[in-house]
Amino acid sequence: MEKLIVTGGKPLKGTIRISGAKNSAVALIPTALMADSTVVLDNMPVLRDITTYKSILEDLGARVNFSEDQMVIDPSSLQSIEMIDDNVKQLRASYYLMGALLGKFGEAVIGLPGGCDFEPRPIDQHIKGFEALGAEVRNEHGSIHIKAKQLVGNKIYLDVVSHGATINIMLAAARAKGTTIIENAAKEPEIIDVATLLNAMGAKIKGAGTGTIRIEGVEELKGCRHSIIPDRIQAGTYMIAAAATKGDVLVDNIIPKHMEALTAKLEEMGVEIHELDEGIRVIGKPSYNSIDVKALVYPGFATDLQSPMTTLLTQANGVSVLTDYVFNSRFKHIPELIRMGAKIKLEDRSAVIEQSDLQSAKVKATDLRAGASLVIAGLTVKTGRTEITGVEYIDRGYDNLVDNLKQLGADVWRES
Ligand SMILES: CC(=O)N[C@H]1[C@@H](OP(=O)(O)OP(=O)(O)OC[C@H]2O[C@@H](n3ccc(=O)[nH]c3=O)[C@H](O)[C@@H]2O)O[C@H](CO)[C@@H](O)[C@@H]1O
Ligand SMILES: C=C(OP(=O)(O)O)C(=O)O
């Protein structure tokens, strides 16, 4: 079993370059399968979710080359439409194969996807969308069977703003006959990224990034080259870590606009922030104001930064309240933070966080962002060695974490 060992007490200092976004990449890879020839994806992050996706594509018969930060996907030899193996269950985003293969072949069979299980991750809105496009959807022995004689465009109103359902429906609709309109669509930058790739492949999509997306179906999609947007969640995690350790870090190669909800909250706490063209410099202060944070759909505060933010709020004077309106019970990091001395109470869907002196301890990452919150806690404690197990979750989403933190002056290493 691998562990991360963190010896805290040092302010993070220096520059960190952010890789491509996981939550874009895991949607762009299946999107590439819809082309009739090679798609080149640049700025690909090196993460466990990405290598798992590469194996899934190879099982499907696609040829994939992944080196440095570039993935080249040749889908011309794609054979199978049946995906029920363990790899599919490793990651939530394998569900984008439903939309991609339904669009391409009119049919898909896929095992129910996995991912971080901080709470149930329903897919009813994805299915509602596929059905509205004319597909028949059946759940048989843990696999979803989706089939359509002909996908036909339709107007689809999402009951909840869903990042995943918006992308999945957009994928299938790109090859449907006629026009699809998705109302109450999610607006995240990753959705714009997928629409940008699809349009470069020949799709006709307008409105991605707004609440209404209009997709005119096309008969073929071709190969192209696309560069993945920077990872706003990795960037946000390093910004929070810089503030928590009272450091001075330039988070580089990002789109500052994507960070606005976090930047506003850090400023409200009293953190010094300098926005540059492609970077944000975060300068920590000796003390911070307590604040309230509400995790909401984009452009609100990202649910994925809720757990790292919990750790930072233990360093603010007074009492802060953090509420997650996207995932009501995404709080598995809290018992572990309490083990490290955090004074946090859970009240319904909110964490009530008091200023706390964190101490080193042996803790467990139960999901990806919970893991990030524990790493930041370990960096923040003044003395002692924090041991974090569940490293496999952290590896799902943080490219080169140990080397990046070492570069910023932290004492962090892996132990088997
Ligand atoms: C809107 C939002 O912030 N989405 C986040 C969500 O995306 P992800 O795509 O995983 O989740 P969704 O956006 O689909 O879910 C948002 C909400 O809708 C509900 N829901 C979703 C689909 C569905 O068919 N039925 C349903 O009820 C979910 O339970 C949740 O409460 O987690 C990702 C990983 O943590 C984040 O990167 C995304 O930014
Ligand atoms: C939970 C996450 O990923 P996934 O939805 O892929 O499980 C995340 O990115 O924070």
TrEMBL record:
Question: 2-(S-cysteinyl)pyruvic acid O-phosphothioketal modification sites?
Answer: 116
UniProt-annotated catalytic positions: 116
One molecular function GO term is: UDP-N-acetylglucosamine 1-carboxyvinyltransferase activity
Domain of life, per UniProt, equals Bacteria
What's the family? Belongs to the EPSP synthase family. MurA subfamily.
Places the protein is found: Cytoplasm
Q: Name the keywords, alphabetized.
A: Cell cycle, Cell division, Cell shape, Cell wall biogenesis/degradation, Cytoplasm, Peptidoglycan synthesis, Pyruvate, Transferase
Q: Does the keyword Cell wall biogenesis/degradation apply?
A: yes
Quote the protein name from its UniProt record.
Answer: UDP-N-acetylglucosamine 1-carboxyvinyltransferase
The record's annotation in SUPFAM superfamilies points to: EPT/RTPC-like (SSF55205)
| Catalytic activity, EC | 2.5.1.7
Pathway(s) this gene product operates in, as recorded in its UniProt entry: Cell wall biogenesis; peptidoglycan biosynthesis
Family annotation (Pfam families):
EPSP_synthase
- Which catalysed reactions does the entry list for this protein? phosphoenolpyruvate + UDP-N-acetyl-alpha-D-glucosamine = UDP-N-acetyl-3-O-(1-carboxyvinyl)-alpha-D-glucosamine + phosphate
Main location as per UniProt: cytoplasm
Q: What does this protein do?
A: Cell wall formation. Adds enolpyruvyl to UDP-N-acetylglucosamine.
UniProt: UDP-N-acetyl-alpha-D-glucosamine binding residues:
92, 121-125, 304, 326
**Which CDD domains does the entry link to?**
UdpNAET
Residues reported in the UniProt entry to bind phosphoenolpyruvate: 22-23
Task: Please list the residue ranges annotated as the Enolpyruvate transferase domain.
Answer: 6-405
